[in-house]
Every structure is written in C-alpha cells, then in structure tokens.
Amino acid sequence: MVNNLYIVTPRGFCAGVEMAIKALTWMLKIYDETIYCYHEIVHNDWIVQKFKNKNVKFIESPEDLPSGSVLMLSAHGTAPKIEKSFNDISAIQVNAVCPLVTKVHHEAKKFTESGKQIIYVGHKNHDEATGALGVAPNSMHLVEKKEDLKNINITGGEVALLAQTTLAMSEWEPIMESAKNIYPNLDMPRKSDLCYATTNRQEAVINVSPLVDVVIVVGSDTSSNTKALVATVKNLGKESYRINSTEEIEALNLTGKNVAVTAGASAPDHIVQEIIDRLNPTKTEYFENTNETEYFPLPKQLRSDITSLSNFLLEVFPENNIDPEKSVNKDKNWTATEALSSL
Questions:
Q1: Helices (H) and strands (E) in the chain, counts
Q2: Which residues are the active-site residues?
Q3: For residues 14 and 22, is the Cβ–Cβ distance under 8 A?
Q4: CB–CB of 6/214 below 8 Å?
Q5: Partner of 146 for a Cys bridge, out of 108, 124, 178, 205, CB 3.0 to 4.6 A?
Q6: Local structure of residue 218 (DSSP, 8 states)
Q7: Angle 300-316/15-30 helices, nearest 10 degrees?
Q8: CATH of domain 100-182
Q9: What distance in Å separates the CA atoms of residue 104 and residue 165, rounded to the nearest whole number?
Q10: Topology alike, domains 15-98+296-305+323-341 and 100-182
Q11: Orientation angle between helical segments 224-235 and 196-208, nearest 10 degrees
Q12: Burial group, residue 292, by CB count within 10 angstroms (0-12, 13-18, 19+)
C-alpha cells in the first residue's frame, strides 16, 4: 500500500489536445464515411485505438489517402509541401494543428525569409519535428543534444534558434546556452517555443518532488512531453516511472512510499483515475502548482462546416427549435473527455 499519494495539477490534457480530440469527434459525427488522419491525432495509444474502432484510419503519407476523402491533419503540425499534396487529393481537409506549433512554423518561415540559418532543437522523426523542418528544409538544422552543435554545417550569415514545443527544459536549456556561446548574435523568438502545458507540468513535478519518493507519469511511450516529465524527475535524483495502465503498477515496489501522480498532455483522465484508485493510498493530497485556463477553438474549417450543416437542418426542420447542448458556440464548455465518452 502506498503511504501518501500526491495528485498533481496541472496534469493530463492540454488545450491543443482538447481541441484536436473534439475536432476529430465532430468529424465522426458530421461525415458519414471513413475519416483519415495524418499521423496519430495525439500521442496516446488508448485514444488512437478508440478512434480506430470508430472508423478513423491513421496514415503516414499522401500516397495512403484515397482520392476525394475526408482528412484531418493532426495536432503536431504538417510540412507545407505535404499539406499541399493532401489538399490536392482530399475532398475535405481540416487542420487540427496546435496553435503553439503553428507559431514555430511561422517563426521558421520568418527567419528563413530574412536570410537566417535555423537551428531546430527537437527529436529526430518526431511528428512535430518532421513538420517543422519541412517549413524550410534547406535552412533548418536538427539538433538533439548540445554536442550536435559542433556537427551542423553553418558558415557565416545570421543564425536563429527554434524548438520542438514538447521538450524537457533540461533538454532545451543546455543547447540554448551552448548555441548562444557559439553564435553571439543568435536570434530567438521573443516568447519561448516550449509549450506552456509542457513547462507547467515539468515545474509541477519539480516542486512536488521534495515531498515524495517516487513520481508516476501516466502516458504513452510515443508521447515526447510524457517522456520529458520522466526525465525531469530523474534529473532530480528521484525515481520516476512512465505507465500506461493499472496493470503496470504491479511491477513497481511502492509499498510504504510517498508517491506523486501526474500525466502527460495527451493522457486520458479516466486512465489516470484508474491508476490513482489502484494505488490505494493511506492518505491522498492534491498538489496544485498552476491553474491552467487556456482554450483553443475548433479549427476554422470545421467550425464553418458545422455551422453550415446546422443552418441547413434548421431550414429543413424549422419546427426543431431545441437549443443543442453541444454546439460550436458552446465548445468551450465541452471537454475532450466528454467527447471521447460520446463515441
């Protein structure tokens, strides 16, 4: 039995994940055909399987998309060349990219147009990194650790620095400091590229760590921000384990220990709650580090489609004047957890 259990806030779904899950749920409800999605909608095994069971097919190339299909582009961002290829094939295309990823794409385009070479700090082959590097493939250089700075080929000219939004602060900061030393006139965005949710969750586990022996992070192995949480705790010299389900708890020796539970930004809340229940602590406390209030609206194309369909139905059935509980105008009050439950 666990001794004290600290349930950390913030944890779980961020605003970008909320938006993407709700958007794909809406698409299943308004389009009576297979929905294709470029990359996993979010990096969580349970959520991906949930949508697969509801006739969503996840693809990795425009070559995998049948002509005239309905397509969603995932939250991680899509390279412009790939997006155009999809646009030429699909009948309907909804881009559910996280606005924070869009910010990095805009920065990459701006720096490239001003003649700068760009150092991009990220994980090779991660969906977000692949999309960002595709914005300016001839002027961007991927770096995963500070030692990589010595191996990139930048000679003369101005240099800028950008980052994958889901990095651990412990990954980003050493590379940033080294890059500043190598390139004294290094250009960077005014506001950090690191996602607010990623940073908030890392700060929360740093602050709760003095109270506990172990930190459990709920999330999938494919989730970069989940793995960043584990790395953050381990850098403090504390035990940390990433788990995906209640079954994985049995392999951990947690008896008599003080434990904190948090979750990556794409981990479903019901799985987190199941794990909390299974831990069966002597005492439970809530550790609130930050109260997140960020909200990202549904993609513009999808909002337009839903509104058009609603107006059409009102014209066909004018006697139906019932105010819907879930609508575009009430989207802020509808959670991704409720959306998943409705499938």
A1: 11, 12
A2: 128
A3: no
A4: no
A5: 178
A6: E
A7: 40
A8: 3.40.1010.20
A9: 8
A10: no
A11: 30
A12: middle
4-13+196-288: which CATH topology? Answer: Cobalt-precorrin-4 Transmethylase; domain 1 (3.40.1010)
What span, in angstroms and rounded, lies between the C-alpha atoms of 27 and 66? 17
Residue position matching structure tokens 């960077």: 188
Rounded to 10 degrees, the C-alpha dihedral 294/300/302/305 comes to 140
Closest CA to 218 of 249, 198, 242, 199: 242
In the chain, domain spans:
4-13+196-288, 15-98+296-305+323-341, 100-182
Q: Is 323 helix (H, G, I), strand (E, B) or coil?
A: coil
The pLDDT profile of the chain, 343 residues, written as one tens digit per residue, is: 799 999 999 999 999 999 999 999 999 998 989 999 999 999 999 999 999 999 999 999 999 999 999 999 999 999 999 999 999 999 999 999 999 999 999 999 999 999 999 999 999 999 999 999 999 999 999 999 999 999 998 877 899 999 999 999 999 999 999 999 999 999 999 999 999 999 999 999 999 999 999 999 999 999 999 999 999 999 999 999 999 999 999 889 899 999 999 999 999 999 999 999 999 899 999 999 999 999 999 999 898 887 766 665 556 566 666 666 666 778 888 999 999 999 9
The SS3 call for residue 39 is coil
DSSP string, 139-155: TEEEESSGGGGGTS---
b/e burial code for range 271-289 (CB count within 10 A of at least 16 → b): bbeebbeebebeeeeebeb
Single-letter residue type at 153:
N
HSE (side-chain half, CA atoms, 13 Å) at 227 = 12
Contacts of 63 (CB under 8 A, 6+ apart): none
> What value does the CA radius of gyration of the chain take, rounded to a whole number of Å?
22
What is the architecture of the domain spanning 15-98+296-305+323-341? 3-Layer(aba) Sandwich (3.40)
Give, in order, the Cα–Cα distances in Å from 167 to each of 86, 121, 174, 258: 28, 8, 12, 27
CB 326 within 8 A of CB 239: no
